[in-house]
Design brief:
This is A-kinase anchor protein 7-like phosphoesterase domain-containing protein. This protein is an alpha+beta fold. The chain contains 11 helices and 12 strands.
Length: 355
């Protein structure tokens, strides 16, 4: 199959209403990112889906070739938006020596984020239960919804929620609840290997930043990220670090600086100031429908009235993960590529996972 024909077919699929009805904005973005990477990366195998783009051939297709002029034109286009260098050279520095990009802050706007550094909160069952109850309360889901009265009330509630731009898809899945430290774009094996090596190299520095002591956080109330509660896009629980933020922020800074030095952080992300927060609702997760366009936000005033002062509890930060987006482990949390246990028990060893 000729690459341009395949590309057209995939684009038509992504644009079809049947396809968008079953996936969210983020999932579409991820699929497009992977496909665009496979299309532009000449003579390289895509780590995500195993496609070889060699003289514009695809696995399982015919050996049709384009003209030299057309290949030159496509090469020029690819050079403009091609991801950062895929070469990893480990020079043995204290951060694993992973100089993947030519600059400390790299540019790669064509691809979506594939991985991130997370502080898992879903490991606390009581917090997961609170989030489930929060979602069920807002959505009007109750155990006694089988009787006629409850069913009628539930339908009326659903209609009202729709007008507010609220549906189940915009709630964060309780089993993935976390704090984000840093977003990463690791769409090939070389970059994933480089990230793991960097992560492994800073375990001691993270412990030093925490003074070898455990760290706990409090989650209380809700707030929106930019905008107003009437037209909210992201609703989150503010984070208060017990005993002050210094130690946890120092540990986060160690992580960010190491990955920046390794060439795995975008320039725009390097310049951002970290604000730890626990997202509970995000419109980017909304499932696409024919009516999606008018719901680029939701009315959170009713949610704030009921949960604006909610005490979500105090929780120990037990570990830090190099997590993979769009892939989940058996416990429901994002796939763990590597994990560093933080001080909270006798055994302070590192656990590593195969990629």
């Amino acid at each position: 199959m000729h690459i341009s024909t395949s590309r057209l077919q995939v684009q038509l699929l992504f644009q079809s209403s049947e396809f968008h009805n079953s996936v969210s904005h983020i999932q579409v973005s991820a699929l497009l990112s992977v496909y665009e990477y496979c299309f532009r990366s000449s003579n390289q195998r895509c780590y995500s889906c195993g496609v070889m783009n060699n003289n514009h051939k695809m696995v399982g297709g015919s050996s049709n070739k384009t003209s030299s002029a057309e290949r030159q034109k496509q090469k020029s286009i690819a050079s403009v938006r091609k991801p950062v260098s895929m070469q990893s050279s480990f020079d043995g520095d204290r951060h694993g020596g992973a100089e993947v990009g030519s600059k400390q802050g790299v540019k790669s706007s064509a691809l979506d984020y594939s991985h991130f550094i997370s502080l898992p909160l879903a490991i606390h069952p009581q917090l997961v239960d609170k989030l489930v109850n929060f979602q069920n309360s807002i959505l009007g889901l109750h155990d006694n919804s089988s009787n006629k009265a409850s069913t009628s009330s539930s339908k009326q509630k659903t209609s009202s929620l729709s007008e507010l731009g609220i549906d189940k898809s915009i709630f964060i899945k309780p089993k993935t609840f976390h704090l984000t430290v840093l977003m990463l774009k690791l769409w090939n094996k070389e970059r994933v290997d480089a990230a793991v090596k960097i992560f492994e190299g800073i375990a001691g520095e993270i412990m030093d930043a925490l003074d070898g002591r455990s760290v706990s956080i409090k989650l209380k109330g809700l707030d929106c990220m930019k905008g107003s509660f009437a037209k909210a896009r992201v609703l989150y629980a503010p984070v208060e670090v017990v005993g002050g933020e210094d130690r946890l922020l120092r540990a986060c800074k160690v992580i960010t600086e190491a990955f920046t030095k390794g060439g795995l952080v975008l320039e725009k992300d390097v310049k951002q100031t970290l604000k730890l927060h626990a997202t509970v609702m995000n419109v980017r997760h909304r499932k696409r429908t024919k009516m999606t366009n008018q719901y680029d936000s939701f009315d959170a005033r009713g949610v704030m009235e009921k949960y604006g002062s909610e005490d979500w509890g105090r929780y120990l930060i037990r570990e830090v993960h190099l997590s993979q987006r769009f892939v989940f482990d058996e416990d429901g949390y994002y796939h763990c590529c590597a994990s560093i246990p933080l001080p909270h028990n006798v055994h302070k060893c590192m656990k590593w996972f195969c990629i």
